[in-house]
Amino acid sequence: MSQLQPAAINPKGYGPLLSIVVTSYTMERLKDIYDLLDSIKLQDYPYIETVFVGERTRELGDRVRAYAEEKKIQNVKILFNEGEPGLSSARNLGIKNASGEIVGFVVDDAVLAPSWARELVNTFGTHESAVGVTGPAFPLWEDESMDWFPAEFYWIIGCTSWYSSDKIVKIRNLWGMNMAFRKEVFQMCGLFSPSLGLWGGDKVGWNKPPGDENEFSFRVKQKMGKDLLYNPRVIIKHKIRKRSYTLKLIAKEAYRIGLSRAIIRKLYKGSAQSEDNLDIEGALLGRVFTRTFPGILAGFFTAPLVAWRKLCVTMVALSFLVFGFCAYYRYGLFNKTGILGKN
């Protein structure tokens, strides 16, 4: 581990230290990480520590360190995950090395709104019962012509615009691309499950489910009985590239998410959280049938090519979401410490 500057010691009364954990595994994201670091530097809340966890190649961390030094970005820790690879393990390493009272997580190709950190910290400060906070992730398109993608399926591309509220509300689970927990939560509830939340992309097997933040959110609510909140002003923009639009990747991501939801539903069946463990998905499905499909049909008269694209995405995503959910029963039972099943 290397550290550019010692973690900030906040003057009394000036707010808690916020640790931002960023994980990455490929040099292809280097420019994205630079953009993210720039947005962290521009935050209007000063007490921030950035914990960067790299995997696969140490060069990634070396380049991030050099950029932080060049741009005079303070309080940056550089770590390399030498243990079990994957998003959950990298996040856990970041947590263990985080000095902040609040630990936030964002994806490596995100850009933070200037008030992101302040809104996050203020939410915890004004809601004592809150142990976790999340916010919206809006798409930052590589090309504006990509914005035809149906908002109801933004969850496939790591965005949350399908969910909206204009005020702070309680929410079922936090979203991994934009979330934070009080540090004490990890001391009481453990860390993220390495069996979930593996790296995305076309190199991950179909039966490697994501969703470590979903499972952890359910675990936190079960053990602590505290609130998880959504604040519409805790905003990030998530870069979306054209290669994310292939039907193969859409099918795989929908399948893996369906599998993940089935696992979590099984793990927490009979708990206080089980009553609403698919409420968001149910509401979203209702929107698909009442808004998305009618909109697509109307679009065939005005923009047939776009309508056809939307129809393909809708049918593929729904079909493979169901396939993934049902496939759970083919791969045996899952216990509370990991997944017992085939690869």
How is this structure best described in words?
The protein is of the alpha/beta class. The protein has a single domain (2-246), classed as Spore Coat Polysaccharide Biosynthesis Protein SpsA, Chain A (Alpha-Beta Complex), CATH 3.90.550.10. Helices cover 38% and strands 17% of the residues. The strands form three sheets. A nine-stranded mixed β-sheet has the order 1-4-3-2-5-10-7-11-9, with helices on both faces. Helix 1 links the parallel strand 2 and strand 3. Helix 7 packs parallel to helix 9 and helix 8 (279-299) packs antiparallel against helix 9. Mean pLDDT is 85; it is low at 2-12 and 333-343.
Quick structural gist:
Helices cover 38% and strands 17% of the residues.
Gyration radius (Cα, Å) is 20 Å
Main sheet: strand order: 1-4-3-2-5-10-7-11-9
User: What name does CATH use for the topology?
Assistant: Spore Coat Polysaccharide Biosynthesis Protein SpsA, Chain A
What structural category do the secondary elements indicate? alpha/beta
CATH architecture: Alpha-Beta Complex
Number of strands: 14
User: What is the typical, i.e. mean, pLDDT?
Assistant: 85
